[in-house]
């Protein structure tokens, strides 16, 4: 078999209302052959992918696909089901596909829905190779290919924070699409368009982001607002860091001036050697380093959206519990086997890495990776509690004392962040603030994974709170969309409708076979009746109504550039267009 091409259809299409990938597959020597004709193929397929026994296929019940296999089905159809089954193994599960004959002899079009475009494209290739290997009865090492797929998904899939926001938007009926391969997302249509990237909105203050990125400036701003922050100093060399030790009461904290995710942070420092080593760690992240007093208490992260607290979690540093048998290295491997842990931000928890900071913490406590802790002994692996370095989180939203809530909301206002993560160290977040503890950081673009997937306690839908800020109740996210298709007369009808609507003073975006117009301005010339043109109009923040000529060729090749239209018009159905594509 050979893959001729794979194309993406990002909008509603002739195969599905959801986005699909369409693979043109040349069956070559398998053209016309059915599954039962290859001796032992069905058995080898079931042994390799047992989960395929649960596929419904067109029969509407579990096991339906196995019945098709036994009675005979073509190999394009088999590749479709194998690709769908493989998505479960890489956490991008989908279950909808369709296979139809292509115009070329021996070729089939295999259409599958997807959650990760690049990941699904890769799995289609794996599915073809796997089925061919099962036909030829040769060994196929599947796991390394699945590992490659997981890396592709992790690299190009939306991060957990952005994913939570777009899922909240979808639940509210707000249209969205990605604008790059990172996390920049366009929300809404026309004049109701907004953008979000991670947990930064299009109205997040750049000045506020800059302030939050400079930890020393953040403390200055908070101190000016009479908010509690630790005392410290800013240094550029190890000797200056050590001199701070004599001016402050240990233990101390050393951290990069503009770091994030706990990178380069060292806590509980008492001796000059510890401070020097901690400075070297921090200097790898930032040339300027903060040395400050270490506040005593528990580590908390509070998220403030639109200057109101929406979630709070107590963060716990990464650790393992001894069993009297395994080494610390083995206990870390055991902890990383938890299905909730993954690389970077792909899962609710992050795998624990035995990096130099972990080794330094163990050394400070008189331990090494090869030591065997006693039964029930807790071994601290890091002193900072960031989820990105393997920490965990317990939801405490409902028990935050009102005085602490007000401190966090005032901190967000002082810095000017509409979406803000406030890091606190307090003896107890449930009690009246007494002057002990305080704010250690204020973060722009705070991660919200720990609140959606806490290790313990009730999940908090911070993504929904962000969407509610961007689109408050009764705020529209869509403009009227009129779509014209059919055969002859589409362009004329489109122009007439646009002329009538524009006469009311409404800014109208129009696509036709002649070009694109926004208001009275011609944006570009040419045949602009496909999904790209529709999306251009719907992304323009000045457009109040969209009038879109939508040609059948664009629908077949690339789907629609919108999820639905308020008014759909079909013009003449003429024989001169019937049968094309």
Calculate Rg over CA atoms.
29 Å
Binned strand content? 15-25%
Query: Which strands sit side by side, in order, in the main sheet?
Result: 25-24-23-26-22-27
Name the poorly predicted regions. Answer: none
> Could you give a short account of the major beta sheet?
6 strands, mixed
- Per DSSP E runs of 2 or more residues, the count of β-strands stands at 27
Total number of helical segments?
18
**What's the N-to-C terminus distance?**
23 Å
How do the strands and helices of this protein lay out in sequence?
Elements: E1 2-9, E2 20-26, H1 41-48, H2 64-71, H3 75-89, E3 97-101, E4 107-113, H4 117-136, H5 142-156, H6 160-171, E5 176-178, E6 184-187, E7 194-197, E8 200-201, H7 206-213, H8 215-224, E9 232-235, H9 238-247, E10 252-256, E11 266-269, H10 272-283, E12 289-293, E13 298-305, E14 308-316, E15 319-321, H11 328-336, E16 341-342, E17 349-350, H12 356-364, E18 378-380, E19 392-395, H13 402-415, E20 419-426, E21 438-444, H14 449-452, H15 462-470, E22 481-485, H16 490-502, E23 508-511, E24 515-518, E25 521-525, H17 531-539, E26 545-549, H18 552-558, E27 567-570
Parallel strand pairs: 16-17, 22-26, 22-27, 23-26
Antiparallel strand pairs: 1-2, 2-4, 3-4, 5-6, 6-7, 7-8, 9-12, 10-11, 10-12, 13-14, 13-20, 14-19, 15-18, 20-21, 23-24, 24-25
Helix pairs in contact: 3-4, 4-5, 6-15, 9-10
């Amino acid at each position: 078999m050979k893959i001729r091409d794979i194309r993406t259809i990002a909008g509603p299409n002739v195969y599905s209302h959801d986005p699909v990938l369409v693979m043109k597959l040349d069956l070559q020597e398998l053209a016309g052959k059915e599954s039962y004709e290859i001796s032992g193929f069905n058995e080898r397929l079931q042994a390799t992918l047992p989960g395929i026994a649960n596929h419904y296929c067109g029969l509407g019940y579990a096991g339906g696909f196995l019945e098709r296999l036994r009675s005979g089905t073509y190999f394009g159809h088999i590749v479709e089901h194998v690709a769908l089954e493989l998505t479960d193994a890489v956490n991008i599960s989908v279950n909808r596909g369709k296979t139809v004959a292509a115009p070329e002899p021996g070729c089939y079009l295999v259409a599958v829905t997807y959650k990760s475009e690049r990941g699904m494209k890769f799995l289609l290739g794996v599915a073809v190779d796997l089925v061919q290997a099962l036909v030829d009865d040769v060994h196929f090492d599947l796991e390394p290919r699945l590992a490659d797929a997981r890396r592709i998904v992790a690299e190009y899939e939306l991060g957990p924070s952005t994913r939570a926001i777009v899922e909240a938007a979808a639940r509210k009926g707000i249209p969205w699409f990605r604008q790059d391969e990172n996390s920049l997302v366009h929300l809404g249509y026309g004049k109701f368009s907004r953008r979000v990237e991670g947990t930064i909105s299009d109205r997040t203050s750049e000045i506020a982001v800059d302030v939050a990125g400079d930890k020393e400036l953040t403390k200055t701003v908070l101190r000016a607002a009479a908010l509690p922050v630790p005392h410290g100093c800013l240094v550029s060399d190890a000797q200056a860091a050590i001199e701070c030790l004599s001016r402050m009461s240990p233990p101390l904290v050393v951290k990069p001036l503009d770091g994030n995710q706990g990178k380069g942070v060292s806590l509980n420092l008492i001796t000059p050697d510890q401070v020097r080593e901690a400075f070297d760690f921090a200097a790898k992240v930032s040339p300027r380093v903060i040395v400050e007093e270490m506040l005593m208490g528990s580590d908390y992260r509070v998220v403030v959206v639109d200057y109101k607290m929406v979630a709070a979690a107590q963060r716990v540093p990464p650790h393992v519990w001894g069993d009297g048998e395994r080494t610390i290295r083995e206990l870390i491997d055991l902890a990383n086997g938890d299905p909730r842990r993954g690389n970077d931000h792909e899962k609710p928890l992050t795998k624990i890495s035995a990096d130099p900071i972990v080794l330094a913490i163990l050394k400070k406590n008189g331990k090494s990776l090869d030591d065997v802790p006693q039964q029930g002994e807790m071994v601290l692996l890091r002193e900072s509690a960031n989820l990105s370095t393997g920490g965990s989180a317990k939801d405490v939203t409902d028990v935050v004392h009102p005085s602490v809530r007000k401190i966090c909301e005032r901190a967000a206002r002082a810095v000017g962040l509409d979406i803000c993560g406030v890091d606190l160290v307090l003896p107890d977040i449930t009690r009246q603030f007494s002057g002990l503890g305080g704010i250690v950081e204020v973060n722009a673009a705070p991660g919200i994974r720990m609140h959606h997937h806490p290790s313990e306690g009730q999940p908090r839908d911070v993504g929904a709170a962000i969407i509610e800020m961007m689109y408050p109740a009764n705020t529209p996210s869509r403009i009227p969309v009129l779509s014209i298709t059919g055969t002859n007369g589409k362009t004329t009808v489109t122009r007439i409708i646009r002329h009538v609507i524009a006469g009311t003073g409404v800014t109208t975006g129009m696509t036709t076979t002649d070009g694109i117009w926004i208001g009275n301005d011609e944006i570009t010339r040419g045949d602009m009746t496909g999904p790209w043109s529709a999306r251009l109009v719907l992304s323009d923040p000045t457009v109040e109504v969209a009038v879109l000529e939508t040609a059948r060729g664009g629908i077949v090749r690339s789907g629609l550039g919108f999820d639905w239209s308020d008014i759909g018009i079909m013009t003449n159905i003429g024989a001169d267009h019937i049968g094309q594509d």
